[in-house]
Specification:
This protein has 4 helices and 8 strands. The chain is an alpha+beta fold.
């Protein structure tokens, strides 16, 4: 699916407003993938996905180690059979206005505001590709069958 799905599909954009943990994938200097759990917010109007983190994190180091203009990243979230991935070029933003905006967006999606952190930065992915399958029903918690019954 092309990136314009995030603007044209209420269901797809809505999935990114639900409370789900995500993964962020960045590339290490040796070319291997670094995948970590994160919270992500989607600004569908601007086509930007944001992750707040500390400037000393490995994910930030990976992005900054890439040649200028070549850093790329992907974020993904899964809920049962529903999933969505956003990919594109990535930058690290340190401007306090940008960081404060990202923290506010995070607070709205995850219903909690992170404690102030002077080391906080924002990873921004300019979405070039969006894909996924969000047309399935939401997952339901499944319980294990009761195996405590005695057999005769």
């Amino acid at each position: 699916m092309r990136a314009d799905i995030i603007k044209s599909s209420d269901e797809y954009a809505g999935f990114w407003r639900e409370y789900h943990l995500c993964t962020l994938t960045t590339m290490r200097p040796d070319g291997s993938a670094h995948v970590v759990p994160v919270g992500v917010t989607l600004d569908a109007d601007s086509g930007i996905a944001r992750v707040i983190t500390r400037k000393s994190s490995v994910k930030v180091a990976n992005i900054l180690a890439a040649p200028a203009g070549e850093a790329r990243a992907a974020v993904c979230q899964v809920d049962g059979g529903r999933w969505a991935t956003l990919e594109g070029p990535v930058t690290v933003r340190t401007d306090h206005v940008v960081v404060d905006d990202a923290v506010e967006r995070y607070g709205e999606r995850y219903r909690r505001t992170p404690a102030p952190d002077p080391e906080r930065v924002v990873i921004e992915i300019a979405i070039e590709r969006a894909m996924g399958n969000v047309g399935l029903p939401q997952s339901k918690v499944k319980t294990a069958p009761d195996v405590t019954q005695a057999s005769a």
